[in-house]
Protein: Fur family transcriptional regulator FurA3
Organism: Promicromonospora umidemergens
Amino acid sequence: MTSTAPAATTPEDLLRGVGLRVTAARIAALRAVGDQQHATADDVLSSVRDELGTVSVQAVYDVLHALTDAHLLRRIEPAGHPARYERRTGDNHHHVVCRVCGTIGDVDCTVGHAPCLTPNDDHGFVIETAEVTYWGLCPGCSA
């Protein structure tokens, strides 16, 4: 998966670069996910409300959907956990998840280029990305 966003320094530039209208909610959501990598929708909602005041739950979900569709955010869904959003979109990295507290960390792809895993039989699919989730205990929970 390759980000379609150009190199930009501000949320406004990022939004314009992918043809999205610049809105306060989109800017606040980009900031929220930038500040808290692997944020849940509830995390983003709380941050956006802290920044803007009143905003509906549906508005935040609409913003997250638009930003994900535009490849400004990546949505990950670890089994048994709520969806999470991250700003790291331009590569094929994987994740490590703590089974106890749910902490998530990024794991760089260790073999080749995206996708870094090649199936024995692709069943005719054009493979765009491969996802690996490592499960274990974070340092805090294993102590």
Summary: The first strand starts at residue 39 and ends at 40. The mean pLDDT is 88. The first helix runs from residue 11 to 17. Strands lie at 39-40, 74-76, 84-86, 94-98, 104-107, 133-136.
